[in-house]
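Q: Focus on the shape:
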Amino acid sequence: ANQLIVTGAIDLTDIMKPVLNLKLNSDALDIDPIMGLVNENTLVTKSGLENTSNQKSKDRFALKRLSVDLDIKRLFWSDLNAVEVAGRVRMEGRKIELLPLQMRLLKSPVMIEGFIIPGSGYNISYDLNISCQNLALDPVINHFHPENEVKWGRLTAKLRAKGDALSGELFRRTFTAGGIDPELPATLKIEGSHWAFKEDGFITSVIATVLRMPDLLESHFNSAELDLRVKEEKAELKFLMAGPLIRLKAEGDGQMSDRIIDTSVDQKVEVELAAKTYKYNVLLTEKDGFVKLPSFINIKGPLSDPEYETDKAMITGILTGTILAVPVKLPFQILRILPFID
């Protein structure tokens, strides 16, 4: 049965600004009809607010604070489902606090704690702790972007993000990121994905050409890891993308921009190739089935559209002949597929 039990109390000490405390309980709740109604009336509501904003009295009746305790055993929203939804949500003015909100989303534990203060456009203030473990990304992304054709796999993350905007100059000046534990960086790990290589635009196409290994282009990445700290417009990044035949690693500092995807870097990329596909007779150490090549690629510029330069001396040590440095875009462009990145 789709039933919601609501109990609570109203504090009328200030009759014009009451305090409302509610408890919401349900064994099974389908919010599809509610979300459909919200979506249908969004434009009407916005229009109504604009038309009546000048008519509101300064002494109007308004809730001073709304506090909602949640205990929902099963929650359904179209193709998404969650169980053991529990926590407290408190709203005072425009500030929304999650104290915290926990659930098992698609059978994976998820926790969000902190506050959000909506503003205009991308100017939204937030200070959030977010964690999840082995969260299936495909159903979540497909829910909001049905046209998605990428297999994203499962996400494990622990991070704290704080700022006063989602993009723009204010974002660049105020955004900070790190771990929930302040001594640690923010960590994001994706496993079980399938990101196919593109012949044009990915560093893998250049590596395949340089090393005369066209089989690389038939492979894919199946995992990624990111460690991140951001403070005072500086970013510390440690990034790994791995697949059955190749691993790419980059680590260093970056300069924040008006979008996180445009963070500017100047870093060397470590390249490891599967030993079974590496055909050159070079004295390189094999570890875990992979061979680490001498460093010969450097990335430079914004993560959304970086270039790279090759070290001709290093390449000469692997192949016969000279390989010229040619600007090519890196696989960081795969981040553009994320729904919250323009």
User: Anything to note?
Assistant: The first helix runs from residue 32 to 52.
